[in-house]
Amino acid sequence: MGYGGYAYLLEPLWWLGMVTMIVGEVANFVAYAFAPAILVTPLGALSIIVSAILAHFMLKEKLHQLGVLGCIMCISGSVIIVIHAPQESPITSVQEIWAMATQPAFLLYLGSVIVLVVLLILYFAPRCGHTNVLVFTGICSLMGSLSVMSVKALGTALKLTFEGKNQLVYLETWFFMFIVATCVIIQMNYLNKALDTFNTAVVSPIYYVMFTSLTIIASVIMFKDWDGQNTGSIISELCGFIAVLCGTILLNSAKDFDRGSSFRGEHAPLSPTLSTGLFSGNRETLKHDEENELLPDDICLRKQEPY
């Protein structure tokens, strides 16, 4: 079967999926160069919808009614965000982005993120990183907000370069490239730790909520996306964002429901909920608890055994 090996490298479908994933990431990178992060980042939830629909038809995974409701909420929220998205002011050089990145408000945000990440890595991760899902996902989300800002800056610099305004001669462009590489490496390292330690159905919605929220905050501070917008548009964007978040959580809850039903029976209780996973999401602990659960028949048999 090739479990734990590299047999999947011989599968054309795996290579097709890898190529499409790379194309999608490149398209996402380009999107940040042409649209504000407050618009691009929440729309990433649409990939979850596409994955759920493709899994329903190609992998024969049942899309529960809860998942259908989640898809509808994600689509509705995305439409609201697109309708009320702010107009991005044109950027003429990477030095202009550097001026935005060095303004006092964003420097305060940057310093806060660095202090929190160092605190989480050095103090909280060794002590409760394997019992509290918020530690690893917090590191990923904080670094992810900085990586998106750097990706947007780098993408804009490359776009201007392709338009004939060479931005590669500026040190700021290479600095943003270094920040992107550093943030992505740290982000992926701790995301893999979170997925390896906790249930994916717990990690995915928490990470998406924290990452998207922090990215929007960073974008509003650095690029001033909400300047010039009226209160109604901002409230509409926030409502659309909340709808997308709720839809994402419902989609992951539906996956958790189907997984629990397939392993425990149609009328069995669900696997551990999101709130439980926040503080006791270690899969080994859950597995140990499940193995210690006794069925009523087993209890009766043990009572009948002679001493």
Q: How is this structure best described in words?
A:
This protein has helices at residues 12-34, 37-40, 45-58, 65-83, 94-101, 104-128, 133-162, 171-197, 200-223, 231-264, 274-280, 283-292, 296-304. With 307 residues, it is mainly α. The chain has 2 domains: 11-88 and 229-257, no CATH class; 90-224. The longest helix is centred in the C-terminal third of the chain and has 34 residues, at 231-264. It starts with 11 loop residues before the first helix and ends with a helix. Residues 262-297 and 299-307 have low confidence and may be disordered. Pfam families: Mg_trans_NIPA (PF05653). It is found in: Cell membrane; Early endosome.
Brief synopsis:
GO terms for molecular function: magnesium ion transmembrane transporter activity. By secondary structure, the protein is mostly helical.
Write out key terms for the chains shown.
single chain, 307 residues, mainly alpha, 13 helices, 76% helix, disordered C terminus
Distance between the termini: 46 Å
Whole-number mean pLDDT: 79
Helix-strand string? HHHHHHHHHHHHH
In this structure, how is the largest beta sheet organized? none
State the helix count.
13
Cα Rg: 23 Å
Total number of strands? 0
What share of the residues does DSSP label as strand, in percent?
under 5%
Structural class: mainly alpha
Fraction of residues in helix: over 70%
* Uncertain regions spanning at least 5 consecutive residues: 262-297, 299-307
Overall tally of domains: 2
GO molecular function, one term: magnesium ion transmembrane transporter activity
Family: Belongs to the NIPA (TC 2.A.7) family.
Membrane topology: Multi-pass membrane protein
Pfam families: Mg_trans_NIPA
